[in-house]
Amino acid sequence: MKPIKLILDTDIGDDIDDAFALAFALNHEALDLVGVTTVFKHTQARAHQVSKYFDTMGVHHIPVCAGIGKPFKQPIQYFEKDRVQNGVVLPPQYEPAYEAYPISNESAIDFIIRQAEIFKGELVIVPIGPLTNIAQALLKAPHIKPYIQKIVLMGGVV
């Protein structure tokens, strides 16, 4: 069976679940992780955190792209565990030393669009955070909709 071409769209850094999802995507033989995009609040910090994680795992070939930090319509929700540093909200699990780990200059939106065009009909996107990057990619390039095989997510209402 041909490995599934996968983009993991994550809000890593607030709790452990996204790191587990990332480890799973990296290590499952049925998956080909073609990139990671970050979403929600300080996406640059989240992207550097993924890059640090990859470095720890010896992975240096998978692009990490920062996406959109603010929701389109709803105000950002802040939590007790959020860390504010110089007026910027950083993920609780983020450390300033992570900035040394490289991330792509390509935006998450452009990366999603480009990968959809490359892997026409094969790409699966797994958002494990807000859907802002995916929404923006589809708004910017609606022609990619049929190029995305599926979007796999879990959701609910609180």
Strand order of the largest sheet: 3-2-1-6-7
CATH 2nd-level architecture: Alpha-Beta Complex
Helix- and strand-based class?
A: alpha/beta
Strand content: 15-25%
Instruction: Give the overall form.
Output: globular
Estimated radius of gyration: 15 Å
Number of domains: 1
How many H/I helices? 4
Overall mean pLDDT: 93
Largest sheet: 5 strands, parallel
The N- to C-terminal Cα distance equals 38 Å
CATH class identity: Alpha Beta
**Corresponding CATH superfamily:** Ribonucleoside hydrolase-like
CATH fold type = Inosine-uridine Nucleoside N-ribohydrolase, Chain A
Which segments are poorly predicted (pLDDT under 50) over 5 or more consecutive residues?
none
